[in-house]
Specification:
- The chain has one domain: Metal Binding Protein, Guanine Nucleotide Exchange Factor, Chain A.
- By secondary structure, the protein is mostly beta strands.
- The radius of gyration is 15 Å and the shape is globular.
- The N and C termini lie far apart (about 35 Å).
- The chain is about 10% helix and about 40% strand.
- A hairpin with a 5-residue loop joins strand 7 and strand 8.
Length: about 140
């Protein structure tokens, strides 16, 4: 039996609040050049699948970062709200936006071959190269 954990969060200004049902609460880090430009470093997120919902989406702006994905952010404070794979309607939400962080654990790193040499995470993770990510997620 699958057990889901409901988590709430918000952007920096609190204007955009959201709820997501997670299973499991595993965080991942993306090191692709787009995420590095967007976040100023790795994009550490939680896969929310399709369960991501906001209380009011009128303050969300969306940037189409590729033909298959988009990034949402708050129009007021600029907080990065999500990365969404359009075809699957799959949301990756920055881990720092959640109200409670205690249950999260970094388990995976993607685009590991694009990770800059000046940092590394201490815990052991499963890793995927860019080629492995595109083979798994990019539309054919």
């Amino acid at each position: 039996m699958t057990s889901f954990v409901e988590k709430n969060g918000s952007c920096l200004c609190g204007l955009t609040r959201f709820t997501a049902k997670l299973n499991p609460t595993n965080a991942s880090a993306c090191h692709c050049s787009n995420c590095q430009k967007w976040c100023g470093g790795p994009f550490v997120s939680i896969d929310c699948g399709t369960s991501f919902s906001v209380t009011d989406d009128s303050q969300i702006a969306v940037f189409e970062s590729s033909s298959w994905a988009e990034r949402g952010f708050c129009r007021k404070c600029g907080s990065h709200l999500y990365y969404r794979i359009k075809e699957a309607n799959q949301y990756e939400v920055p881990v720092g936006l959640f109200d409670e962080l205690e249950d999260f654990e970094l388990k995976c790193q993607v685009f590991i071959d694009a990770k800059p040499l000046f940092y590394s995470f201490a815990n052991e993770t499963s890793d995927m190269t860019a080629a492995e990510v595109f083979a798994k997620y990019a539309p054919t």
